[in-house]
Amino acid sequence: MSEQRTALYEAHERLGARFTDFGGWTMPVRYASDTAEHHAVRRGAGIFDLSHMGEVSVSGPQAGAFLDHALVGVLSGLTVGRAKYSIIVDEQGRILDDLITYRTDEDEYLVVPNAGNQETVVRALQERAQGFDVRVTDNGPATSLIAIQGPRALEVLEATRLEPAEDVAALKYYACVRARCADVAVLVARTGYTGEDGFELYCDNQDAPVLWDALLATAAELGTEEAPVGAAGLAARDSLRLEAGMPLYGHELSTEITPVEAGLGKLVEIALRKKAEAGTTTVGEDVLAAMLEGTPERTLIGLEGLGRKPVRAGYTVHVGERTVGEVTSGLPSPTLGKPVAMALVATDAVDGIDAGEVSVQDARGRAVEVTRTALPFYKRS
């Protein structure tokens, strides 16, 4: 087990959680059943401890201009209270992480990196801050993050002494507002990683146990068999994000996978075009522009199993006798009742895959029948 524990570790122990080492943190992987926790999010609401995620404050008169330079995205154009998905790359255009950035005030932003990349992102931002009137502060060690995801997420928040409830209810997707929940000061964001409507609540570590217990108390009051509400672990979070076709760093994103291969070419193209129009530059832009001009060697695709045999990360993808790629993420889908997977395959093999010549093999060479399907696998109605 890792040494880093969130402020809610003891609360998870009381709930009987099973733990796993994730991104250098000891995190609850499940409380009772992966599948039950997954279905709770799809039908009711699931409550997650995501305090392993990073939180980086970027503030100062040139905060927006600095982030435009440091990230692949135009963050200066965000209005206060809105958020944007972007990536951070090195000089060679390699993905260091994918991020959500919130503009919390006129001269202040909150950048949220993934747990395992927290130190890398903080270091890169601090190095790139040279020459800008800006402060980069790592607030991750002092901040907790609790997410509530699912069709009943707003109902649960409103029943947990949410003030001002009307402001939270009015939030658009990828927006945030300061509020109080269970008398705890929180930044509430309408973002998530499950494919459902939901919210993420940032608060001080010392307040996290109060907020967590209050949300679970509400869950106990509101949950029903048809629309359950309760704590959910990282296993359910993984199956939910895979169904929603959302990438996971270390699987669909890494320094070994280009942004274009990962399906982020449009994000890069828009960012570079807007920066060129504004006369600004970004780290790695020449390499990124060259990537856009060419055809990527690999393409990220969706696969679904034709039977019940699961498809797992690491399985090889084949067109006839040719090995053309590898599964990056794969699980049995609780919602769809079939195996689903994302795979990175040779671009010149995609036509053969579309023609139905595709299969995947496990480490022992045993084949699983699959077919290509569009991403995401699941969209909420």
Cα distance, first to last residue? 39 Å
CATH superfamily of the largest domain: Probable tRNA modification gtpase trme, domain 1
Largest sheet: 7 strands, mixed
- Tell me, rounded to a whole number, the average pLDDT: 97
Q: What portion of residues is helical?
A: 25-40%
DSSP strand count: 21
The CATH architecture of the largest domain can be given as 2-Layer Sandwich
Strand content: 25-35%
> Which CATH C-level class of the largest domain is it?
Alpha Beta
CATH fold label of the largest domain: Gyrase A, domain 2
Organism: Kocuria marina subsp. indica
InterPro entries: GcvT, GcvT/YgfZ/DmdA, GcvT/YgfZ_C, GcvT_C, GCVT_N, TrmE/GcvT-like
Binding site for substrate: 200
Domain GCVT N-terminal: 8-269
Structural notes for this entry:
One of its GO terms (molecular function) is methyltransferase activity. By secondary structure, the chain is of the alpha+beta class. It folds into 3 domains: 4-53 and 142-243, 2-Layer Sandwich (Gyrase A, domain 2), CATH 3.30.1360.120; 56-115 and 258-295, Aminomethyltransferase beta-barrel domains (Alpha-Beta Plaits, 2-Layer Sandwich), CATH 3.30.70; 297-381, Aminomethyltransferase beta-barrel domains (Elongation Factor Tu (Ef-tu), domain 3), CATH 2.40.30.110. Helices cover 26% and strands 33% of the residues. It is built from 11 helices and 21 strands. The protein has helices at residues 9-14, 34-43, 63-70, 118-128, 153-158, 165-169, 208-222, 234-243, 265-278, 285-293, 350-354, and strands at 4-5, 18-22, 25-30, 45-49, 56-59, 83-89, 95-105, 108-112, 135-138, 143-149, 162-163, 176-181, 184-189, 198-204, 229-231, 298-305, 316-319, 322-333, 338-346, 358-361, 367-373. A hairpin with a 4-residue loop joins strand 18 and strand 19 (338-346). Helix 2 (34-43) packs across helix 8 and helix 9 (265-278) crosses helix 10 (285-293). The radius of gyration is 21 Å and the shape is globular.
